[in-house]
Structure formats: C-alpha cells, structure tokens
UniProtKB/TrEMBL annotation:
Key word Cell inner membrane present: no
Protein name: Alpha/beta hydrolase
Record PANTHER family: ESTERASE ESTD (PTHR43265:SF1)
Gene3D superfamilies associated with the record: alpha/beta hydrolase (3.40.50.1820)
GO terms, molecular function: hydrolase activity
Organism of provenance: Isoptericola peretonis
Annotated InterPro entries: AB_hydrolase_Est10, AB_hydrolase_fold
Membrane spanning residue stretches: 365-390, 411-433, 453-474, 495-517
Amino acid sequence: MVFRTIATTAAILVGLALTGAVAGPQWDPVPVTDHLVPATEDTAIGGVAPDAEIGEVGEFEVRETPVTVPLGAGVMVGGLLRQPLGDDGGVLPDRPGVVYVHGAGTGKSTQAFTESATALASAGIVTLVPDKRLDTYTTRDRDYLAMADDYLRSVDLLRTVDGVDPAQVGVYGESEGTWIVPVMQAKDPLVAYTILVSAPVVPPRQQAAFAVDSYLRNTGVPEQVFRAIPRAVGMQLPGGGFEYADFDVRPWLEQQTAPVLVVYGTADPSMPIEQGARQVIADTAVGGDEAPVTVRYYAGANHGINVPLDGGMHLHPDFARDAATWVQGMPGTADAPPRIAGDTPNQLYLASAVPQPRWWGNGDIVVGAVVAGAGLLLLGPLVWGVHALVRRVVLRRASADAPRLARGLRSSLLGLGIGSVATMVALVVYLLAVARLALDYQRDDLVVQGGWIAVRLLGVATAVAAAFVIRRVADARAQRRAGADVAVARGWPAVLTFWCTLAGSLALLCTLAYWGVYQLGI
C-alpha cells in the first residue's frame, strides 16, 4: 500500500511538472557580453564656447508662477512656471526653456520634478512642469500619441512666456515620459532638444519583464520562480486593455532631428541602462547625423537620478550642473566629446521580446480557472450539507440510505481540497511577500527560500492526498468487481461532491503547475 501510494504520488508530480512545462514559455534572458565603457568618469559637459553665457546652479533667484495650460475641447490642466530673475528682480531675456513630461502614475506640478526644475531655473533656464492629464490616463488604457499632443500644448505655451527664446525650448522626460518625448519632437521638429532620463526605450512589456527579472535576482529567489515572468508579463491581462504594453518608440526615435541627452543612474535596476543608450544612439542615426546623442551615467543614482544626501534622497548635484550646461551651451555641447561618460554601467541581461504563453495566454482563463476551482470545491460540500439538513430536519429520514462515499474517501477528498486551496493561498502570499522585498530592494532568505520550500511542500502534500484519493477509488472498484456492495459514491449529493472536488482541485493544481510549483527540472 505504501509503495503504491509513493508510486502514484510520483506519477502525479511528474504529470503536473509536464503540464507546467508545456503550458507556457520558459525564461532564458540573454546575458550582456559587450558592455559600454565610458570614456571618462567625469560627467562634465564639454563643447562650451568661450564666449557662451552659462549660468550655474543656484546663481539666480527663481520665481514660481502657477499657470493654466489649455489642451483643447475645453480641457485645461494646471502647471508651475519657474523663471530665473536678474539682479533687478526682472526676468532674464532670451533664455532657453524646458517642458517636463511625467513618468508613470499621477503627476502634480507642485510635487513633481521640484528639485530638477528649480535647479535648472536657478541656472538660467525657464522651466514649466504641467499637471499630468488624468481623465484619459488609467492603468488599463494609455495613448502615448495623444499624450504627446497634450504635452505639446505646454511647449506652445512656454514659447510665449516673457524672457523665453522660442527657438530654444526643449523637452525633459523621465521613465514612461521618455516614450512620449520622441513622439513630441517628431511631431514638432521645432522642439530644440530632448532630455531622456531613465529611458526604457524598449516596449513597456519588455521593460516590465526586465525590471521584474532584475528585482527578483536582487531578492535572491529560487531559479524556478523566474518561469513566472513570461507567464505573467507575456499574457493578455484579465479584462483586456493594456494595448500600450507593446508600444514601440523606435520609429519615433528614428525621426529625431534635435540633440538628445540620455541620462541613467547606475543604481537603477529597473532600466536596461546600457541597451537603452545603445538603442537611442542607433535609432537616431537612422535618418543621418542630425540628432547627436550625449550619454551620462551617474554613480549611485536611482531611477530618478537621486542619491543619498543630507539624510534623504536628493537629485545628484552633478546631473543638475551637467543638464544646465548642456542646454545653455547649444549648439556646441550637442555633439561635444566625450559622447559617453560617467560611472561604468553593468547591465546583466538584455531586455528582449517576452515569450507569449500558449494555452493560458489569456489572463481571463487563468483567473477563471482559480475562481472556478475554488467555487467547485465549495459547491459540492455545500450542496451535500444542505441536502443532509433537509433530510434530517424537514423529511426526518433515517440515515441508513443517506449519501455516502467509499471508506476512507471522504478524508482523502478533504485533504485534496484543503491542500489545493492552501497551496494556492500560500503561493499568492509568497509572491506578495517577494514583491514587497523586491520593491524595497531587500533580501530575506527565510522568506524567499524558506517560503518557496514551504509552498512546494504543501504542493507535494496535496499530491499525496490526490494519490490517496486514487487508491481509495481503485480499492472500491476492486471490491465491487469482487461482488461486494460497495460504491465510490452513493447518492447524488455524494457523487456531486466527489466530482466537484476532483474538478476543482484539478483546476487549482494545473494553475499551480503553470506558475511553477511542481517544477522538476523539466
């Protein structure tokens, strides 16, 4: 009996492992072997003409003025204009201007880019941070082309501001905003320059997979967990939408005609910091040499080019200096050597196309399988319980002909149902715990390694319960063939409970196999 149970359990585990292997793609990112080597650690911008008037950060007083940006069709957003002031308190004449484009999430002009916009303004550059338009921006739906049109209204407004040289107005984008900025420059070639800070360059789906991989590696998760990356990121998410996940900015980069400053922090694990710079250089060269590219890497800087300073995270001081010099020193600074300078980046893997799941590529199916499985596990026992209550209280029937399961099958089914639910809950809790550690950029081997072992042990225990169910069913059928009055399930409530438990558990076990709980190196 013990040997048969072990053999049956092993067969179940192998079957689930095979199911998980064929149900979706593997994850095998390509290592970066050809690394970028900056020409110098000094990020200072060269090419400044001897007679150029280059303001330094902190040189000028800054005046902040709330503004309203009309977007058309009666829609307006607020904004915050920062202007450098001369010794007489008046605005400086003929200054370059910068419009800021927000990254992902909400963006209030009074809260976003405060250090950057103020620093550039104090160096002599007029800055405008508009509020992000949110009525057309959701987690599920985003239109980067329409967003580019909206932000170009801020460019138009800044060109009319007193003291701004309209021919020297450029755009600064960060993170998600760097998918929008190249569209803006292609649509309006009069945009004088663009600054791309922490630019993914690759489509959002590829960047998401890259970021998840990077965060998980830092957290130290077991290798088996990585299989979940293409299955989660590559699937069609539940409820549809998210078409922007495959937005490709490269055709817009190929249309650039203005100088580009590309900036990364080498402590930013979420961006392909070497691949992104290479891609911008390559794509902007497609149309010729009209869009020179300057690349800077800042040591210890994170996604927002912030570093630990004065007990908090603040903008890297060299970045503000360099950006101000680059903007004010045009055109000499646009293509001045060195093109690539700063801290040495170390991107481990390429951000590549995400393999698409096959059978479970639709997120609605994945969610539906879990909901249906849990519902079936609840349905059978619930119906049986109601039926038993009605028999006992209302009909007052004897228990001799009550529904029943074969000997030992009830406890085995109970173990199978509880085990499959418990394993699913444990997997969700584990993934949430790992996500919290990853986002906080922390490691906890007890949670990461121990938690995964616990989830897999629960999965194995559930497989053992499934083996007991199979053995109980086989024994009951063998006894029936021998002439005994034995049935696997007697009475429709028992039959319903039996099949609901099997179907519900199978749905959850296949889902667990899909997410890698039953991997055996297959």
